[in-house]
Amino acid sequence: MNLKNALRAATALALVTGSAATAETITIATVNNGDMIRMQGYTDKFTEATGIDVEWVTLEENVLRQRVTTDITTKGGQFDIMTIGMYETPIWGANGWLVPLDDLSEEYDVDDILPAMRSGLSHDGTLYAAPFYGESSMVMYRTDLMEKAGLEMPEAPTWEFIREAAAAMTDRENDINGICLRGKAGWGEGGAFITVTANSFGARWFDEDWNAQFDQPEWANALNFYVDLMNNYGPPGYATNGFNENLSLFQQGKCGMWIDATVAASFVTNPNDSTVADSVGFALAPNAEGVDKKANWLWAWALAIPAGTQKEDAAKQFIEWATSKEYIQLVAENEGWANVPPGARTSLYETPEYQEVPFAKMTLDSINAADPTNPTVDPVPYVGIQFVAIPEFAGIATEVSQEFSAAYAGQQTVEEALEKAQAITTEAMEAAGY
Amino acid sequence: MARSVTTQRKILNTAAAWAIGLLIFFPILWTILTSFKTEAEAIASPPIFLNFDWTLENYAIVQERSNYMRFLWNSVIIAGGSTVLGIIIAVPAAWSMAFVPSKRTKDILMWMLSTKMLPAVGVLYPIYLLCIQLGVLDNRLAMVVILMLINLPIIVWMLYTYFREIPGEILEAARMDGATLKEELLYILTPMAVPGIASTLLLNFILAWNEAFWTLNLTSVDAAPLTAFIASYSSPEGLFFAKLSAASTMAIAPILILGWFSQKQLVRGLTFGAVK
Asked: What are the residue ranges in chain B where pLDDT is below 50?
C-alpha cells in the first residue's frame, strides 16, 4: 500500500514539474563552426530573458543541408529555425517555404544589415533570413616571406602579381609553397573557388539565355591559369585540398599566400593555433589584367524560419536576439572584439574598437566589392557569385567540380575537363527545362 | 596428429598477426591519441605520435557542450531494440527456410538480400513522408523498427547459414519424442545455435550502432543517437580535429568494450560450422 502511495505521489509530482517545465522550446538546426558554437554558449541568456528554451541540433554542413532540405520540402516540421546560406535562401523564399522577416522590431534596425548581405538573403525585396555572420574571400599572405622576396603586396593585386609573388616565395627545400588554393571537388569547396576565379577572368556560367559557357575562351584562360599556378607553386596534392587542409598548411607556415574565406583571418592570426600569427597581411582578392571583377565571393550563414512552424513568434524573438547589435556587444564584452560574428552589420564596422582589429577593414572592403546580382563582366540571368541561385546548381556544379579536380590531379587535360563540364551542364539544364 | 610447428615459424606467425592487427587498429588508436592533443598538435606536420602534452581539455569541452548520456541512451535503445526485435522475427523465418525449404526458398533469400542493394537515399523521401504521416519523426520506436527492417535480411541470412549446419535429424528425433514446434524451436534448436545467434546479435548490434544514414536523417533531438553526436563535431570550415576525435572516442568506447568482452563469442560464431 505504501509503495502504491509513494508511486502515486511520484507520478503526481512528475506531472506537476513536467507541466511547469513545458515552457516553449524551439529547435534550431545549425552548423558546427566557431561563431555558432559560441552562440550556443550564450543561449542561457536568451532563455533567462524570454523564458523560451532552445534545443540545438548541430550537424556537419553537408549533412545539415541534406537534413533541412528534406525537412522543408516535405514539411516535416522538425525545426523552428534553420541555419541556411545565401544559396538556399532566395530559392526557398521564392517557393514560399520560409516565413518572411518583414515585421522585425524597430530596435532590431534591419537597415543596419550590410546591403550586400541583405540583397543576397532576399527574394523580390523581402528578407527571408537574418545574417548571423557573413564572409567574402581575400588574400592572406605572409608579410615576412613577402619582404624576403623583395616584393610589396598592393591593396588590390592582379593575378599576374600573385603569380610573380608565388614564384618568388616558393621554397621547395624549406617546404614553403608560394600559394595554397582550394582544389577539392564539391560546389561549395573547389567549385566555389574556381567560379570566382572565372568571374575575375570575365567568364560566366551561363549567358542570358541559360546556355552553358564553358566553351568560351574566358573559362579556358581561368582554368589554365589556375592549373599552371598551382602545378608550379602550389602544394603537392592540391586537387584534394579544401578550406581545412589549406588552413592547416597556412597555420604551419607552409604557404606564402592563401586566398580564401575572410573568416579564416581570425584563425590564422590566433597565436594559440597558428605558428605565423604575427606575420599575416591581407589584400583584396585578385583580378585578371583589364577585368574589373575580383575573385571574391559572398556568403552568409543566416537564420530562417520554415513556413508552417507552430512557434513562429518564439523563433522570431530568437532570431532578433541572435543577430542583434546587443548580441555582438555581449560577445565583445566577454571574448573581445576579434571574436564577434563578422560581416553582418554596418554598425559593427563603425565601432572604433572593431576598426582596430587587423582584418576588419579588408573584410568589409571585400564584402562591399561583391555584388551577387552582377557577379561577372557580362550580364547573367542569375543571382549569386560563387554559385548560381537555381535549384539545379548544386548537382551540376558538384559534377563539374569533380571534372575540374580530375584535371588538377593530372588525370585529364583542362580542355577535356571543360568539354565535359559543357556537356554535363548543357544536358542538365535541358533536362530541367531551361 | 597435429602438424609440428617450429618455434621460429611460431614467432613469425605471431609477429605477422600482430602487425596486421595493429595496422587495422591504427586509425582507431590515432583517433584516441588525437583526442588527447591540443588542436594545434592535432594538425601538426610531421604528426606527433606520443610526445605531446596530454590533455583532457577536449573531453571537458565535449562534455560541456553536449549531453552525451542522452545520445548514448538513444544508441543503446535503438541498436539494442532493433537487434532483439530482428532476432525474434528472424529465428522462425530462418528455421523454416533451413529445415522445411520450399521450391522458392532460395529465391526468397535472394530477394530479401536484394533489398540491401538499393542505396538508402533512394527511399529517403518515401520513408520521411511515411514518418510524417504517422507522426513518428524523431521517435526512438520508429528508429528501432526502421533499423530492424534494414538489418533483417542480414540477420535472416546469418541465422539461415548457422541453422543449416545443425543436422535436421536431431530436430526430427525431438519431434518423434513428442516435442511441439514451439518446444522444438525453444529447447532444441536455439540452444544448439547459441553461438550463431550470439554472433548474429553482436554483429547486428554493431551495425545498428554505427548506422549513420537513417539515424542522422530521421532524428533531431529526442531520438538522436551517438552518430548525430559525432556529426555535430565535424566541420568543413574550422579545424576541430581534437574535439572531433574526443567525441568519436566517446561514441565508439561502449561498442569497443563490448567487442572486447565478447571477442570469444564473436570469433566462435563467425567460424561456427567451419570446423566439425
From this structure: 274-276
Fold of B66-232: MetI-like fold (1.10.3720)
Q: Do B132 and A261 touch (CB under 8 A)?
A: no
CB-CB under 8 Å, A247 with B232: no
Cα separation, A29 vs A45, in Å, equals 19
Position A5 scores a pLDDT of 58
Q: Pick from A33, A121, A63: which is nearest to A303 by CA?
A: A121
Q: Is B124 on the interface with A (CB under 8 A)?
A: yes
| B237 and chain A in contact, CB less than 8 A | yes
Distance CA A283, CA A172 (A): 25
Return the number of other C-beta atoms located less than 10 Å from residue B273's C-beta.
15
- The shortest CB-CB distance from B234 to any of A40, A55, A60 is to A60
Q: ipTM of this model?
A: 0.85
User: What pLDDT score was predicted for residue B273?
Assistant: 53
What are the structural domains of chain A? 2-135+299-360 (3.40.190.10), 137-297+375-431 (3.40.190.10)
Query: Cβ contact (<8 Å) for A248 and B239?
Result: yes
Q: What is the DSSP string of A116-131?
A: HHHHHTEETTEE-SEE
A220-278 confidence digits (pLDDT tens): 999 999 999 999 999 999 999 999 999 999 999 999 999 999 999 989 998 988 999 99
At residue A8, the pLDDT reads 57
Whether residue B46 is preceded by a cis peptide bond, meaning omega within 30 degrees of 0, is yes
For residue A39, the chain B residue with the least C-alpha distance is B65
